[in-house]
Write a structure and sequence with these properties.
The protein is mainly alpha-helical. 51% of the residues lie in helices and 12% in strands. The chain contains seven helices and three strands, in the order ααααβββααα. It is globular and about 55 Å long.
């Protein structure tokens, strides 16, 4: 069985400064993301032990542990690539056209995405996703690491609004962090994710 592993960042920890400092990037990656990787591997191992022993009384807890920690691993793996040192600005090409089609304009999309990020109560994410059933872009508010996202949606752009993502830089002023995120948003990465999601899910249908 292959364990989950912590991915390397595609840039140096300090590369996103001053929008996000090197100190918080290193802590976020090596401590918080690593904890999710460790937790996901532990949950898988414990589920395997429970199956082998025929003792599944704790399966509900273990499944919740797996969902939370694997969610944290997947979300952060996307988040790191959604940012870049030479990024920011506005989308181009097919991504820009899709945003205009489904949100009216980039400005309307940005306002919607920002409002979702600001509206998370407690810990969670703002997510631009491809709805593989409706064949459209949607924005979703993800609570914790795994709650409130519809099955069949593919994350394209994710903004972590857990306090560990910004407190060292912005204290409790989430609005300043969200505003700074747009300076490092990697639209090229989002566009590649959109193209892949459209290609892979174009034939997906709800079966009845």
């Amino acid at each position: 069985m292959v364990d989950y592993t912590l991915p390397e960042l595609p840039y140096d920890y300090a590369a996103l400064a001053p929008s996000i400092s090197g100190k918080i990037m290193e802590l976020h990656h090596t401590k918080h993301h690593q904890a999710y990787v460790t937790g996901a591997n532990a949950a898988l191992a414990q589920l395997a032990e429970a199956r082998d022993a025929g003792s599944l009384g704790a399966v509900n807890k273990l499944e919740k542990d797996l969902a939370f920690n694997l969610g944290g691993h997947v979300n952060h793996s996307i988040f790191w690539t959604n940012m870049g040192p030479d990024a920011g600005g506005t989308p181009e090409g097919e991504l820009a056209a899709a945003i205009d089609e489904f949100f009216g304009s980039f400005e309307k999309f940005q306002a919607h995405f920002t409002a979702v990020a600001m509206g998370v109560q407690g810990s969670g994410w703002s997510v631009l996703a491809w709805d593989s059933i409706g064949q459209r872009l949607i924005i979703q508010q993800l609570f914790d690491q795994q709650s409130n996202m519809a099955a069949g949606t593919v994350p394209l752009l994710m903004l972590d609004v857990w306090e560990h993502a910004y407190y060292l830089d912005y204290l409790n002023v989430r609005a300043d962090y969200v505003k700074a995120f747009w300076n490092v948003a990697n639209w090229e990465n989002v566009a590649l994710r959109l193209a892949a999601a459209r290609e892979k899910t174009s034939g997906l249908l709800l079966l009845s």
